[in-house]
Each structure stands twice: as C-alpha cells, then as structure tokens.
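This entry is listed as follows:

___
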Amino acid sequence: MKFELIFFTIFIGCISAAPQGAKEEPIAIISQSSNIEVDGAYQFGYETANGIKGQEVGTVKKATDPNSSDVIISSGSFSYTAPDGTVINLTYEADDVNGFQPKGDHLPTPPPIPPEIQRALDYIASLPPAKTR
C-alpha cells in the first residue's frame, strides 16, 4: 500500500512536470509543499500556473493483528480545467477497508434501480435466512 501511494505521488508529479510540447513553454509550479513525519504520516500540496491544484494527507493506522503491517489512510483532492473548459474537482479517500473512493461531479453514476427490481430485492431481504445442512 505504501509503495502504491508513493508511486501514485511520483506519477502525478511527473505528469505535472512533463514537457507540454516542443513549442510550448514549461508550466511553472506556483507552490509546492511536502512533509513526511517519522511515523510515516505525510502531507503534500502543489499548484501550477495553468490552474492544476492538488493536496493529500496520509496517516498511519496501526494494525490490530500483530502479524499484519500498518496501513496508510489517505485523503486528498485535485482540480484542473478540462480541454472543453469544464473545471474538474475530485476528492478522494483511501483506506484498508474501502480502498480508493473518488468523488466528483464528472464521475459516472449508475442508473436508478427500476421499481420492480427494487421490490424483488426488498422481498428477498425480508425472507428468513436459509438453513444450512
């Protein structure tokens, strides 16, 4: 988990700093900060001249099982303007129970469950548990 988080952070940094084309000027980094604590907790943030912004905070959660390693719980956000002019804002949380959970108005959402299907699901949920042999 820690390696994946570090890789993700490096990946985002490389994308932000990657050359934008032979004829274009490099995009300036307006602000950048990072802090890594001895216990593994961290925070970072950045903003570029073309309006890209990002930040993340991570903390270490001690494992309850002595045979398991500690896990990192993180949350953050980033924003940028899409080529069509739409401002994209994404927030996220990531932990060992629910994984990566992004939220943003631009993300697709599932269609509503048809009423007939919902009634069937409600009926199934109301049934007593099946007996096992």
